[in-house]
Amino acid sequence: MNILAVVVSAAVTLLVSGAYYAALGSRLAQLSPAYAGPRRPAPVTAVVELVRGGIVAAAIAFLVAGLGIGGLGQAVGLALVLWFAFPAVLLAGSVFHERVPVALATIHAGDWLLKLVLITGIVTIWS
Q1: Which one is predicted more confidently, 123 or 127?
Q2: What percent of the chain has pLDDT over 70?
Q3: CA 74, CA 45: separation in Å to the nearest integer?
Q4: Domain boundaries, position 120
Q5: pLDDT surpassing 90 at residue 80
Q6: How many CA atoms lie within 13 A of 76 on its CB side?
């Protein structure tokens, strides 16, 4: 596992995800009171998201190495499998069981798709 690739992919996803949610901020505020009220301090959010991203990136780097993923096509394929198996399934459950608005779950699903493709691509290129 390439630790630098894990760190870089966590940082890249922090920036991309931040831009993604910033672009959708007004829509998020309409869909959930969690986004309409005061936000947590940016440094705290950055640290939390870097840790979360690093954990996901390390797990994906482990899978990429273990499965012998060797090209971007295979990396995107793995990212899609992971996205369908985890975020998409979990978010669908939140829509069904907790009545989370479909639009809100779709926004989060898009964020996770971006993250997984970016992380898997970066750790594959650097492995």
Answers
A1: 123
A2: 100
A3: 32
A4: 3-125
A5: yes
A6: 2
Amino acid found at 111 = D
Q: How wide is the angle at C-alpha 106 spanned by C-alphas 22 and 92, nearest 5°? A: 140
What is the widest separation between alpha-carbon atoms in the chain?
A: 45
The span from the CA of 1 to the CA of 85, in Å, is: 23
Give the whole-angstrom CA distance, residue 42 versus residue 3.
25
Q: Are the beta carbons of 119 and 13 closer than 8 angstroms?
A: yes
Task: Look over the chain and give the mean of its residue pLDDT values, rounded to a whole number.
Answer: 96
Is the pLDDT score of 35 beyond 90? no
The number of folded domains in the chain is: 1
